Amino acid sequence: MDCGELARVARAMMVKNKGILAADESTGTITKRFAGIKLESTEEHRRSYREMLFTAPGAAAWISGVILYDETLRQKTSDGIAFPTFLEKNGILPGIKVDTGAKPLAQFPGETVTEGLDGLRERLIEYRKLGARFAKWRAVIDIGTGVPSAFAIMANAHALARYAALCQEQDIVPIVEPEVLMDGAHSLERCEEVTEMVLQKVFGQLFQHRIDFAGMVLKPNMVISGKKASLRATPEQVAQATVRCLKRHVPPAVAGIAFLSGGQSPTEATQHLSLMNSLGPLPWPLTFSYGRALQDTALTAWKGSSTNVGAAQKELLRRAKLNGLATTGAYAPAMETQAA
Ligand code: 13P
After folding, report:
1. Is the shortest distance between the CB of 291 and ligand 1 below 6 Å?
2. For residues 337 and 276, what is the distance between their CA atoms, to the nearest angstrom?
3. What span, in angstroms and rounded, lies between the C-alpha atoms of 61 and 232?
4. CATH superfamily of the 3-337 domain
5. To test ligand 1's pocket by mutation, which of 257, 260, 294 has the most ligand atoms within 8 angstroms of CB?
């Protein structure tokens, strides 16, 4: 393990004005996204969609890294350049999702544990050779009646820490993603309570597994009311609660925090990030690692047609730029209606 190298890559992922594009949808998830634009999920469609995203001109001004899926890491541009090579040449770090998904946790109805530890060392060795500089593992915690249980939180925290240790052993920066879902009708207070329990356990496990905090990135949910809550918290309340919660549980040595969007609208996700960054100074850089909040408008513009590539890239670059501005608190909602 080269601590200097890990810290250098982690810092590059978190560099000012930039964030991470999460384009690591599994085949199942991208198939669902394509269904929304009535496009069949063939390997070539998945490749051409990712090519549209990765070749957006000037994306490196706002994007420091892209998270890929196993299939995508092995695919090429139309000119025959492997995606990781293409990204790296353009100043964007390639990363890889390495978990194999959240599976039902036996004996704990309604809860999941993320799998993928078996054979992970060997897969990481191969991914490093294919160009991956960082990795991602997502644990999923749902809020509902009687859930989450303390045991499910612990099982997920333990797996996250074992994953992170294996990554650092192979000189790959781990993105540690414990996601508390925003699917329910719960309040912001309940989300904060659960997020606190989760972060406390996750950092306890990371510490025990001897993780170098300077060589990792945390990818958390924001502290936010559930999508179905009758009274949703304001953007200012979300920003304050999230920063408060993170300050209590995330050691300052952590290289940075890159949020998931988790089902927030693209504008909500940008506004929340910008408000948090205006609450500074903060112990760590705060940026984005959005999937849907960066891609949704681009996917809708693309519609699976090569004639729409330019328009779709414009949409992606627009969201990337607004989120880039949000990393310094320089975003204002009025920018949404201004020309790109
Ligand atoms: P969303 O931003 O769409 O939540 O995706 C981020 C991600 O990587 C989820 O694992």
Report:
1. yes
2. 22
3. 34
4. Aldolase class I (3.20.20.70)
5. 260
pTM of full prediction above 0.90: yes
* Residues 24, 260 contacting (CB under 8 angstroms): no
Q: 293-302 pLDDT, tens per residue? A: 999 999 999 9
Give the largest CA-CA distance in the chain.
53
* Cα dihedral 200, 206, 207, 209 sign: positive
Residue 220 C-alpha to ligand 1 middle, in angstroms? 10
Q: What pLDDT, in 10s, does the model give residues 161-214?
A: 999 999 999 999 999 999 999 999 999 999 999 999 999 999 999 999 999 999
Contact between 274 and 19 (Cβ < 8 Å): no
Q: Locate 312 and state its tokens.
A: 């779709």
Q: Where are the domains of the chain?
A: 3-337
Cβ(304)–Cβ(39) below 8 Å: yes
Whole-number Å distance, alpha carbon 159 to ligand 1 midpoint, is: 19
